[in-house]
Design brief:
CATH topology of chain A: Rossmann fold
Structural class of chain A: alpha/beta
Number of strands of chain B: 0
Number of domains of chain B: 1
Strand content of chain B: under 5%
Shape of chain A: globular
Distance between the termini of chain A: 28 Å
CATH architecture of chain B: Up-down Bundle
Largest sheet of chain A: 5 strands, parallel
Order of helices and strands of chain B: HHHHHH
Radius of gyration of chain B: 17 Å
CATH class of chain A: Alpha Beta
CATH superfamily of chain A: Response regulator
Order of helices and strands of chain A: HEHEHEHEHEH
Mean pLDDT of chain B: 91
Radius of gyration of chain A: 14 Å
Strand content of chain A: 15-25%
CATH class of chain B: Mainly Alpha
Helix content of chain A: 40-55%
Mean pLDDT of chain A: 90
CATH architecture of chain A: 3-Layer(aba) Sandwich
Low-confidence stretches of chain A: 1-6
Number of helices of chain B: 6
Number of domains of chain A: 1
CATH superfamily of chain B: HPT domain
Oligomer: heterodimer
Strand order of the largest sheet of chain A: 2-1-3-4-5
Largest interface: A-B, 22 and 24 residues
Shape of chain B: elongated
Distance between the termini of chain B: 27 Å
Number of helices of chain A: 6
CATH topology of chain B: Four Helix Bundle (Hemerythrin (Met), subunit A)
């Protein structure tokens, strides 16, 4: 059962999100969280698939981007998306704690970077922020 | 055993799993996602983790057959496994995974071997404990959302 704060914040499909992570379980948890919050969500397994989606014309309000992924990692994908002119909020989520890896990830063009796992509270704050600025 | 007693036993078992460091806050986050529409969400995720673990362990064991070790490959496999274990809140397993990765960075074959054995041991222990926990939870029936005792 989600807490009161979460129940009060259902986004009624006003927002869309893309989950980019090579870990199936991580994607399952994010997807479940986002669907419960009333966010329309898609998932992909690596950075290249994320870039391909945007190149095909898809748009999202939020991207949750893992760092270490095969084929194209999160930093490469983020850099590419920014070079394409994508202004979507991109939140990095990495197993690395604050330090050089997070800094390098931020420099690729993230809006924020969080250490895994991304808590429900942080996710709600991120979505609230996006919703208020729509 | 009466329902209330079973529920008490379930709660107690759950509490012990946290106190002994097998589970962390992420498990609570998973429980918060469970609802009437998805009454077995946590058990499903955990089952998925243990099924996927078999493949991860096979990959690592196969990689450890070649000498010298390809530490980059081993690190990559363990990174994936660590991500999964982190998703279910498997604290001790996550810790061992982190140590394994550190040994990969150091290029220590002995460290990797030793840590991997410990990791498999922790994995087997947690699997058994959670299987028992979910079995008991099913017998006890639905309760209000358990809160981690403070």
């Amino acid at each position: 059962v989600m807490g009161d704060a979460a129940n009060a914040l259902v986004f009624n499909n006003r927002l869309t999100a893309l989950v980019v992570d090579d870990c199936k379980l991580t994607r399952m948890v994010y997807m479940h969280n986002l669907v419960n919050l009333g966010v329309e969500v898609k998932e992909v397994k690596n950075g290249k698939q994320a870039v391909d989606l945007f190149q095909s014309g898809e748009v999202f309000d939020l991207v949750l981007m893992d760092l270490e992924m095969p084929i194209m990692n999160g930093a490469q994908a983020t850099k590419m998306l920014r070079e394409m002119g994508v202004g979507t909020k991109i939140i990095g989520v990495t197993a690395h704690s604050k330090g050089p890896e997070q800094d390098a990830f931020m420099e690729a063009g993230l809006d924020e970077c969080h250490e895994k796992p991304l808590t429900l509270e942080n996710l709600i704050n991120i979505l609230r922020d996006i919703d208020e600025n729509l | 055993m009466g329902s209330k007693q079973l529920q008490y036993q379930v709660a107690s078992m759950r509490d012990t799993l946290f106190k002994q460091g097998y589970l962390d806050e992420q498990f609570v986050q998973l429980e918060e996602l469970q609802d009437d529409d998805n009454p077995n969400f946590v058990e499903d995720i955990v089952k998925s983790f243990f099924q996927d673990s078999v493949r991860s362990f096979n990959n690592i064991e196969k990689a450890m057959e070649s000498h010298p070790f390809d530490f980059e490959k081993l690190d990559k496999y363990m990174h994936q496994f660590k991500g999964s274990s982190s998703s279910i809140g498997a604290a001790k397993i996550k810790e061992e995974s982190t140590m394994f990765r550190e040994y990969c960075r150091q290029g220590s074959a002995e460290g990797c071997l030793r840590t991997f054995q410990q990791l498999k041991k922790e994995h087997a222990i947690l699997r058994k404990k959670l299987e028992t926990y979910f079995q008991l939870a099913r017998q006890a029936g639905p309760t209000e959302t358990a809160c981690r005792s403070k």
